[in-house]
């Protein structure tokens, strides 16, 4: 069963057409990389799936729940971490976890919370206030909060922003672990090497148009003129600097 299922999603902001006709699925265990130049529509897509932005047209399902018609049921099954996570400056690291545990009725905060703090190397910061955390620590805390209620759909917008090399490794491993445990993960990134090494699937967007959706191997073979050895970066530039959509490839 698909955890994230998007059909013919369009979004227009007053005069700007941000996304035109996206359709894709993310299954349990799959990690979909959402890539595209600045302004392609990645954040718009994530915010719509998270139920923050109403779609102009189309159907968005999370764990079978329509995000427009049954938003509470859909939101219980997902976690969304924006590229500039908002924390509560007056709450400590542990109080953030307590707050999320209370909102999502997490039964075993102590075990799950302690384990997440260890995983993200925040144990020593347990009682520190959010306003005193570095950018990378804030990012790690936001992701720890996102994982706490074991969401079936995880949406991460540029999750590596501000992380040091060790933080990047921890984040990548955590995403793989979550997928291996059955989550469907959607990750936006400008780092093609990250997407190539981490993701099972890729969706290439440009100016709101879906240029390609499929596995990484399918992306390479979709553009025969690049030869079978093309990197995802080669595919990305070929797709986004040309004007062809997948059906024309
Ligand atoms: N609140 C808004 N009001 C009007 N237009 C918006 C709004 N948010 C985004 N847009 C426009 O929608 C389009 C898609 O923006 P979006 O932020 O989704 O792109 P993105 O792929 O996430 O870009 P980036 O890689 O720069 O983060 C852009 O043309 C942007 O200017």
Automatic annotation (TrEMBL):
GO molecular function terms attached to this record: ATP binding; ATP hydrolysis activity
Annotated ranges, domain ABC transporter: 4-232
Keywords: ATP-binding, Nucleotide-binding, Transport
Gene3D superfamilies: P-loop containing nucleotide triphosphate hydrolases
Record InterPro entries: AAA+_ATPase (IPR003593), ABC_transporter-like_ATP-bd (IPR003439), P-loop_NTPase (IPR027417)
PANTHER family per record: ABC TRANSPORTER, ABC TRANSPORTER, ATP-BINDING PROTEIN
Stated family: Belongs to the ABC transporter superfamily.
Official protein name in the record: ABC-type transporter ATP-binding protein EcsA
Origin species: Symmachiella macrocystis
Lineage: Bacteria, Pseudomonadati, Planctomycetota, Planctomycetia, Planctomycetales
């Amino acid at each position: 069963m698909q955890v994230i299922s998007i059909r013919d999603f369009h979004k227009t902001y007053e005069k700007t057409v941000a996304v035109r006709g996206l359709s894709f699925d993310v299954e349990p265990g799959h990690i979909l990389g959402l890539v595209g130049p600045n302004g392609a529509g990645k954040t718009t897509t994530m915010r719509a799936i998270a139920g923050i932005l109403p779609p102009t047209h189309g159907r968005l399902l999370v764990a079978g729940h329509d995000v427009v018609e049954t938003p509470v049921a859909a939101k219980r099954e997902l976690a969304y971490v924006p590229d500039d996570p908002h924390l509560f400056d007056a709450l400590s690291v542990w109080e953030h976890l307590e707050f999320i545990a209370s909102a999502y009725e997490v039964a075993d905060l102590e075990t799950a919370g302690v384990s997440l703090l260890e995983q993200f190397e925040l144990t020593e910061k347990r009682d520190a206030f959010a306003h005193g955390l570095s950018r990378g620590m804030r990012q790690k805390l936001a992701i720890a909060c996102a994982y706490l209620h074991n969401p079936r759909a995880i949406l991460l917008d540029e999750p590596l922003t501000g992380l040091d090399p060790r933080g990047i490794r921890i984040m990548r491993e955590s995403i793989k672990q979550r997928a291996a445990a059955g989550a469907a993960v959607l990750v936006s990134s400008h780092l093609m090497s990250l997407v190539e090494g981490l993701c099972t699937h890729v969706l290439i967007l440009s100016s709101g148009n879906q240029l390609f959706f499929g596995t990484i191997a399918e992306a390479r073979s979709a553009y025969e003129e690049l030869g079978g050895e093309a990197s995802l970066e080669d595919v990305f530039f070929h797709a986004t600097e040309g004007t062809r959509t997948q059906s024309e490839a």
